[in-house]
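This week, think about what follows.
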Amino acid sequence: MDVLKSMDGAIRNYLIIQWDVRHWSLAFASDFSKCDVIDNTMCETFNGVIVEAREKPIITMLEEIRMYVMRMIVKNRQQALDWKTEYGPRILAKLDKNWKRVDNWEVDWDGGVAFEVYHDNIELNLRERFIVSLEGKTCSCRGWDVSGVPCHHAIAAILYCGKEPIDYLDIASRKMNSSRHINHSYILVGVQVFGARGMRGKESEYVITRPAGNVQKVTTVRKLKEDARKMRHDRAAWTSKVQEVLTQESYQP
């Protein structure tokens, strides 16, 4: 916020007053998913993929979306299995990017499990300080907590101890765990239609099974048509009765 204030104080004040800080500040971001993405790019991409399917009837639309999700799960699982290292290329690229920002950061050890990492910012005329805990894999900047990738403050402390930053990546980013998350096969769910005489049987002999909780509800095509015909007849009778009542009321003096 100090950097933003030095650039434009009016924008900083507008951001704090008009928008709830819990929705955009890293201090309130959740560290459960280990993902620091704060934009809606993935949502926009998904909406762009299904834009054609959304113009189709509901059953066709859901079927196309299901097929797309199933293909994406298989594709992502295969990509995770093809990783040459224990971690994905994007995670390693992010770690390398943070590593390049370690210059000019000093580290002091408190004698326990925490490190104070500081840097004199000449432009802002202040000293930036952050507390890093290698045991808890946390940093007061919240970058390491949210993303699972050591920030440049944490990397400075790790290098101070003579250790490798890659050993402090979160286990959720490992190849084994990433493939495990998408290792479940996509369950195909549909309406089964079959007949006692095979697909050449009469229409009334085809049986349709639909899952209804833990019990399968069995019916036939003829039964479905009879129910639909009865429903149309009841609706027509009710409409005729309502019109008759309205006509009688309109002629009353």
Observations:
- Confidence is low (pLDDT under 50) at residues 190-218.
- Residues 32-189 form one domain.
- Residues 221-250 form the longest helix (30 residues).
